[in-house]
Amino acid sequence: MADKALDKLKTQIRKLSRRTRGHSLARVIADLKETLLGWKAYFDAAEVLSPLRDLDKWIRRRMRCYVWKQWGRRGIVS
């Protein structure tokens, strides 16, 4: 899998999972699911596990950040 293809996918994911986008987590996940399923269908013939594992970790981290941003500072006692 080409680095250029991964960079293009990451750019698309960044646009969909911006923390200031203002959509619910369910909406963001639905949008990501549509993009990722299309991307997977296109690159299905390629056998690449390592980049996909790294991509999965990266997407999970972005989703955690999205949730933490929605929580805000509520509940944090200083």
Automatic annotation (TrEMBL):
InterPro entries: Mat_intron_G2. Residues 7-73 form the Group II intron maturase-specific domain. Pfam families: GIIM. It comes from the Bacteria. This is Group II intron maturase-specific domain-containing protein. It comes from Marinobacter oulmenensis.
